Amino acid sequence: MYEPIRTKSVHTSADNADFPHRSREDELDIQLAGHLAALLAVTDELGLAVMGDRIAAQVARLRGAPPARHAGRSEAPTAALHRRAHALAGRVLVVAASRADTAVAILAAEAMDAHTAALSAPTALVGAP
Q: 39 with 85: CB under 8 angstroms?
């Protein structure tokens, strides 16, 4: 009544597969470097050179090569960029905590504080480009 299965099941174990396996730590490194690179792009767009250099150093440490730096400016309002950077720094903080990377966690917390302060400043909400 039923035709027998002629192919291997997709539910078989992947232990003997031919693709490379990455450890959890490697995956977290990749994720952390990606979040840091995104934060670096927004930080460079805001013109925060010192913070950008610190973030770039951490990206270089994780990737083994210096990151590409953001050269152009968008038309986004400064307040929106600070909100985006604050959200990205929060993601960095979560992954850094999961990875137990104290240096990056401290850097992310400092970035969050700096962007919060910039958002609470009276000129940040006026619409300064």
A: yes
pLDDT of residue 123: 59
Residue pair 55/36 in contact (Cβ under 8 Å)? The answer is: yes
Q: Give the chain's largest Cα–Cα span.
A: 76
120: enclosing H helix or E strand = helix 102-120
Measuring CA to CA, which residue among 62, 118, 48, 56 is closest to residue 86? 118
Sign of CA dihedral 26, 23, 108, 34: positive
pTM above 0.90, yes or no: no
Closest CA to 55 of 105, 107, 124: 107
86, 108 in Cβ contact below 8 A? no
Tens of pLDDT, residue by residue over 89-121, are 999 999 999 999 999 999 999 999 999 999 998
Block residue for tokens 């083994």:
64
